[in-house]
Amino acid sequence: MSGSGSSLRQLWQLVRMARPSRGALGAAALAAMLSAAATLYFPLLAKRMVDELGGGRLEPASIAAMAAVLVAAAMASAVSSYLLARTGHGLVAALRRLLVGKLLKMPVPTFDEDSTGARVSRVLSDCDSISELATRQSVNLLTGIMLLGGSVVVLLLLDVQLTLTLFACLAVAFAIVIPLAQLLEGLARGTQDRTARLAGILAHVFSEIRLVKAFTAEAREQERAGREIEEIRLLGLRTARINAGLEPIIGLALTAALLVILMYGSLRVSSGAIGMGTLTAFLLYIFNVAAPLIQLTNFTAELQKAKGASARIAALLNEAEEGGMAGLVQENRPGELAFRSVSFAYPGREERVLQNIELVFRPGTTTALVGTSGSGKTTILSLIERFYAPCAGEIVYDGRAIASLPLAAWRGRIGYVAQGAPIMPGTVRDNITYGLAGDYPDEMVLAAAARAGALAFIEQMPQGLDTSLIEQGNNLSGGQRQRIAIARMFLRNPDILILDEATSNLDSETEYQVREALEALMAGRTNIVVAHRLATVMHADRIYFLEEGRISGVGRHNELLGSHPYYARLVSRQMQPALVAQHG
């Protein structure tokens, strides 16, 4: 019971957080109750009309009352349906905004743990389940209880024996229906989970479709997705089999109830115990009793789905957000960035990627991080960005631990040009100004593009700055993506500039142009350069050579050539092809 109670509390809390319109819900409930009242009154009007016909006269007032009740019931039902749909859409939108805001504030390690598709499923399908229960199903429960209670009272007043006969017929049917409905609840939850897993697989595959095709892994990914699709199909077939059994059972129960009431009622009419109008009303009330029972069964199933969805959403909302948002904003002046005995291991792993790292990045200088793949260079950049926190030691900026600085203000000091130069869906202008506060006129954007060597190809695009870029910038070359990322840095004007293989995707001519632009951009900043091509770091003020998470050498290029055999060997290997090509 405690687990069920906890789920209900979580569900109620989520509904309150979404703040659905109480006025609209109240009006929808009132309209639904008016429709239910009219539905309850309809058989009594039918009884009166049948009795009047039996007496040889039909009053115009009875016909008018019947028409008024039917019209009122239809209008009230339409108003209720619209208000419920409006409230439901608002509730879903509020929950989705809440979840998207939460997801964007969560730290990077949480995204390393779960599938992207599973999180997308939380935002989409789970919110729908909660909305359906909080609006339509809740009002259906209210009207169902009203219809059922009202029908029972009226039926007992009309004839107790026929009422007991009717409920005996329906009880037998629902004794079979309820266990089957409970099976549907479990199948619905299983289908939700499998669909979330399929969404995760597809999101990953489609985002890396070039990798899939480059390695001819289409068959492998199709098989992996096919297994989930097959499981969803099997769950759907089991659900269909149960539904296929439920519908005839309910239909047979109603038919049997009609026949029993018709035969038994006819006997009571012939004996004079009841009139024909009473029998007619009983036959109509059968549907007023059966419909609420079906609604109650549906409510139970939707309640279980919504409880499961609310538990998953509540778990997500309870996850920690990125820390360090509090604190005083530091004065906007360049400072020294230093790693002091920093060690780090990724969450869930015991092996440390960095061990006792000591680094210093000074303003107005260029510091290079060099080493083989897996030596820890990218991890150092992630720690600077505060995507992760050190396991030991601390990172300080201008004498203050960066963990104590406001996170948004800290990241606002950093400009990061990544190797892949990611592009977001939107226009060229949107991408150059991405993440920047304030308005930037076209003159500023074009000037930044020119300094990054991007103006020429932007002017050749169909709509210039307003040209739309598709997901991941697949309608741009690698060099074009890189230059748009560099143009963004000219507008961002960061204190700390991180260049992670920033010119790796450029041809020789473009690389020369961009390198000139980067030199202007790097002036007066704290520059951190990561490169595999050692020719790009030869003029750095300081080079740190990393091996297996440790610093094995520090110095300028000429110093490391004489003191670090591994560095000298790498330089020799990389320079030799260039010399061969030069003298070839």
Notable characteristics:
584 residues; alpha/beta; ABC transporter transmembrane region fold; 4-stranded antiparallel β-sheet; 12 strands; disordered C terminus
Description:
With 584 residues, the protein is of the alpha/beta class. It folds into 2 domains: 7-317, Up-down Bundle (ABC transporter transmembrane region fold), CATH 1.20.1560.10; 330-409 and 532-584, Rossmann fold (3-Layer(aba) Sandwich). It has 18 helices and 12 strands. Strand 4 and strand 5 form a beta hairpin. Helix 6 runs antiparallel to helix 8 (218-270) and helix 15 (478-492) runs parallel beside helix 16. The longest helix has 53 residues, at 218-270.
Instruction: Determine the oligomeric state from the structure.
Output: single chain
* CATH topology tier name of the largest domain: ABC transporter transmembrane region fold
Unreliable spans: 324-330, 578-584
Kindly state the number of beta strands: 12
Percent helix, as a range, is 55-70%
Q: How do the strands line up in the largest sheet?
A: 6-9-10-3-11-12
CA-based shape: elongated
Strand content: 5-15%
Helix/strand/pairing class, anyone? Answer: alpha/beta
CATH architecture descriptor name of the largest domain: Up-down Bundle
SSE layout:
Blueprint: H1 2-18, H2 22-54, H3 60-105, H4 108-113, H5 116-158, H6 160-207, H7 209-214, H8 218-270, H9 276-317, E1 337-344, E2 354-361, E3 366-371, H10 377-384, E4 392-397, E5 400-401, H11 407-412, E6 414-417, E7 426-427, H12 428-432, H13 442-451, H14 455-459, E8 468-469, H15 478-492, E9 496-500, H16 508-522, E10 526-530, E11 542-547, E12 550-555, H17 557-563, H18 565-583
Parallel strand pairs: 3-10, 3-11, 6-9, 9-10
Antiparallel strand pairs: 1-2, 1-4, 4-5, 7-8, 11-12
Helix pairs in contact: 1-3, 1-9, 2-3, 2-5, 2-9, 3-5, 5-6, 5-9, 6-8, 6-9, 8-9, 13-15, 15-16, 17-18
